[in-house]
Design goal:
892 residues; alpha+beta
């Protein structure tokens, strides 16, 4: 299969559009615009049908260019006939390559003789107006050769466009001189062009966060996308004068196998882009959630037992762009070596099998891997031991790829290779970078076959922002940052815990294996634990260490779920968690792994609230373990300790003991159990400062909970404060992450912990005052029946349909019921829940609010109005009402 930088002149022609009919319409009356539009529509429909019949995409993109050629040439002959001898009509850019997708840009250059420059406006205007009238919307420039030369000299983007040209019509004399005018002897020699285009690529990749693994990638601009292939084409054309990528094989810049990878990768990305244009009816290069499912169906993917069709499509996409990124990196290095580096630079030996030259690691000879397969791991250890190296020589990368077949079961069972792999993990520096290289070059997925199966695997939701392999390596990277003192300022608590671990490689291995069984069916934590223990034992680790790794993989979600879905103010919750963890070592490993995992799942879901929750559970469990699981913390002890700390804070603030004792007499045991000392002191001060003890009070505090804003509402129970507060806070665009509703004597004291919708804390004083004012207004304005939330859910969230799930159970430790709710996240969801609770006369005690991508996964702790758990009939009625209300709210 040929990959051309320009169309093949020997390609067979097919009748795609009736040129004679178009010319006849132009000679006729005013129906020409309609005739051209209809001809384009019919031709586009035929191309669409051919696409659906799975005709080779290379044929279709060139057929589209030929259709546009015929339309443009018919119009040019009619409207610009007077320019026949003085102008060349030239296709540029992608159109110049003869490659068009259904709605690609159509870029034209009208190359004029200087003598005719001032007498062409009218004819060109008629021509271009007609093209716009028929719906082509071309981009165009009108230039002389001098103009082209001047603009190309000053802008490498203009130069690049002018390098990709094709004569459509005209004498061709000006067109023939254009390459001379922009040649390397006049401007942008190979070295200058290489540096400029490399800077462009670096900037482009940065716009996509330097990763091909975005949830909604751009098939053209993202790393590994079509632009990266075009980058190689541009450099080949500029440096070698290459007309086709096949020419790079002759120059020994590409192997036949690499050419096939580039060709197949381009064809796959073309197919996706062509399909996107057909689906959207416009130029669209973004693989948005809106289109992924439809595109998967269009391309023939079907749901399998454990993998959705869309996940199969996206896995192939990610694997393709990863391979293209690797080839792009390798070929750019080859160009750098050929253009910028000293070919005669003497090598510096790095052991018997490797050396460095011009800052790159390379093999001492091309038989190294065949002679000594262990070099396939040794090369990565050398990179860690020589951090001044810029990378791996391009030819050596190619040799690694060619010898991957050596990594078989015998290779994986070799004790020497076990030692090398563990040495890579135990290296003092460069571990993350090395693991990423191992993944990119294909070594990691072959050495750990289970890892290879999750390379490129994505989950079709908004929670998992990266493919499984990319997420896994982000988790290890986070653990590495905790382990290195120079990053202590980022997460001081995690760094302190990580740096006292005796064997950090245990954490790294747990990170590598924690999601390795995704997509197999069954519990991925259970399955991954089996894989992890077997791997560790095979690699000579002690049975104790192997079991810790396996335990961490099996329980890697435990701390996160406990902190986010259970009541951490309940001593029974902490004691139960401590019994599962067992000892301080397991707790330390689990804590750092959990933070690393959540931070590596999606940058938008980590916030100060999660940081506080995880640390609070860690500290509480640490205290419980010190006492011993046979001597658990009891309620009285917890309350006494919190009161003592709150008293110290109030004394320092100058509040008299008799004042706070009077207020505390109205507080219940439940209140002291569910609030930290800082919150107790804050509430006490606010109530003490109130002139009217029975008045509705609202206060906002951004100090008592680090990184959060706490909102306190003190009001009579009949004000329905939970319903009103949730409506106001949601309409203000705030995310409620925690809600505690505590009945006192004839009053209710509610505390809401809120963040901005993007997860950031609220720092603006005017914003804090707005929250306080809007809440007071809603609580004091009489009936709250007119309250509503009008904000719309973000586009990405609206793409998903999450069935409402409600589970109601009896709390085994406390006299209350637990409601677990799963629903599609949307503005007003909590307000809808509050209205149902109010309607059903359910008293909310506590709420744990969690958003997992497009899903709300909330937990509510409730009682009846007389503080008893719900009975079976009440639970059934409440569950039914919630499901109906939330389903109706979603459809409205």
């Amino acid at each position: 299969m040929a990959t051309s930088l320009e169309p093949r002149s020997d390609a067979p022609k097919r009748e795609l559009i009736d040129r004679a009919a178009l010319e006849s319409a132009l000679r006729g009356d005013t129906t020409a615009v309609g005739a051209f539009r209809e001809a384009l529509r019919e031709a586009s429909e035929r191309l669409s049908e051919r696409f659906k019949r799975n005709e080779p995409i290379e044929t279709l993109v060139r057929a589209r260019a030929e259709i546009v050629d015929q339309v443009i040439l018919a119009a040019w002959d009619h409207y610009a006939d007077e320019l026949r001898g003085s102008a060349d009509l030239v296709a540029v850019g992608g159109y110049g390559r003869g490659e068009l997708h259904p709605h690609s840009d159509i870029d034209l250059l009208l190359l004029l003789d200087k003598a005719a420059e001032n007498n062409t406006d009218e004819a060109i205007g008629r021509f271009l107006t007609f093209l716009w009238d028929i719906g082509l919307e071309p981009g165009h420039s009108v230039r002389t050769l001098d103009d082209c030369e001047a603009q190309a000299r000053g802008d490498v983007t203009v130069l690049t466009t002018l390098m990709e040209t094709r004569l459509l019509h005209g004498p061709g004399k000006l067109f023939a001189e254009l390459p001379v005018r922009i040649g390397t002897d006049r401007m942008w020699n190979s070295a200058e062009f290489f540096r400029a285009k490399l800077d462009e690529q670096i900037a482009r990749h940065a716009r996509y966060h330097d990763t091909a693994y975005n949830l909604e990638p751009n098939v053209k601009g993202s790393p590994g996308g079509l632009r990266d292939i075009q980058m190689i084409s541009w450099l080949a054309r500029r440096h070698f004068g290459a007309k086709r990528l096949e020419d790079l094989v002759e120059h020994k810049f590409l192997t036949e196998g690499q050419l096939r990878i580039l060709t197949a990768g381009q064809a796959f990305l073309w197919k996706i882009r062509f399909g996107l244009h057909l689906l959207t009816g416009r130029r669209e290069d973004r693989l948005l959630f809106d289109h992924q499912v439809k595109l998967a169906a269009m391309l023939g993917y079907e749901d399998a037992s454990f993998t959705l069709a869309v996940e199969q499509l996206m896995q192939r996409y990610y694997r393709t762009v990863m391979e293209l990124s690797r080839l792009n990196e390798m070929l750019l290095q080859l160009f750098e070596e050929a253009i910028l580096l000293d070919k005669n630079e003497p090598p510096v030996p790095l052991g018997p099998r490797f050396q460095s030259r011009n800052g790159y690691l390379e093999v001492s000879d091309e038989q190294v891997f065949a002679r000594e397969p262990s070099a396939l791991l040794e090369i990565f250890l050398l990179l860690e031991q020589n951090l001044d190296l810029r990378g791996v020589n391009a030819r050596t990368i190619a040799l690694v790829k060619q010898h991957l077949w050596l990594i078989d079961e015998e290779f994986r069972q070799n004790p020497r290779h076990h030692r090398l792999f563990l040495d890579v993990l135990r290296a003092p520096n460069g571990v993350t970078r090395t693991l990423k290289r191992m993944n990119t070059y294909g070594v990691l997925g072959l050495y750990i076959p289970a890892f290879g199966r999750v390379v490129g695997r994505m989950q079709y939701d908004l929670f998992h922002a990266y493919t499984v392999d990319a997420h896994t390596l982000f988790v290890v990277e986070n653990l590495r940052r905790f382990a290195l003192p120079r990053f202590d300022n980022e997460f001081p608590s995690c760094s302190a815990v990580m740096q006292r671990l005796e064997k950090p490689e245990v954490a790294y291995l747990a990170g590598l294996f924690h999601d390795i069984a995704k997509g197999r069916g069954g519990d991925h934590s259970e399955l991954g634990a089996v894989d992890a223990e077997a791997f560790c034992l095979e690699h000579g680790m002690s049975r104790y260490d192997a079991r810790i790794v396996a335990w961490l993989v099996k329980h890697h979600l435990l701390l996160s779920l406990t902190a986010q879905k259970k009541d951490l103010n309940d001593p029974n919750v902490v004691n139960e968690f401590a019994r599962t963890v067992g000892d301080q070592t397991h707790l330390d490993y689990l804590y750092v792994l959990t933070v690393a995992d959540v931070r590596g799942t999606n940058p938008k879901i980590w916030n100060s609230w999660k940081d506080t929750l995880f640390w609070e559970l860690y500290q509480s469990t640490r205290r419980a373990l010190r006492r011993g699981v046979s001597n658990p913390i009891d309620k009285e002890e917890l309350i006494t300790g919190r009161q003592a700390q709150a008293e110290r804070i109030l004394s320092q603030a100058g509040l008299a003991p008799e004042r706070w004792q009077q207020i505390w007499s109205t507080f219940t045991e439940e209140y002291f159990l569910r609030h930290r000392p800082e919150e107790i002191a804050w509430h006490t001060r606010v109530l003490a400062e109130s002139a009217n003890p029975g008045a509705i009070i609202v206060d906002v505090n951004d100090v008592v909970s680090q990184g959060l804003t706490s909102v306190a509402v003190y009001s009579p129970e009949e004000t329905r404060s939970f319903v009103r507060a949730t409506a106001v806070l949601d309409e203000l665009g705030l995310t409620i992450v925690d809600a505690r509703i505590v009945p006192l004597v004839a009053q209710s004291l509610d505390t809401y912990c809120v963040l901005e919708s993007d997860g950031s804390p609220i720092g603006d004083r005017r914003r804090l005052e707005e929250i306080k004012y809007r809440l007071l207004k809603a609580l004091t304005s009489g009936s709250g029946d007119t309250l509503k939330v009008t904000r719309r859910a973000p586009r990405q969230v609206r793409m998903f349909s999450t069935a409402v799930q409600v589970s109601i159970s009896r709390d085994p430790q406390n006299p209350r019921s637990i409601i677990e709710l799963v629903a599609g996240d949307r503005p007003g969801l909590l307000f809808q829940v509050a209205k149902v609770f109010d309607q059903e006369r359910v008293a909310l005690q506590n709420a744990k609010i969690a958003t997992v991508g497009e899903r709300a996964e909330d937990v509510f702790f409730v009682t009846t109005t007389d503080h008893r758990p719900l009975d079976e009939a009440q639970s059934e009625r409440l569950g039914r009402t919630l499901r109906e209300a939330l389903a109706d709210a979603r459809s409205s």
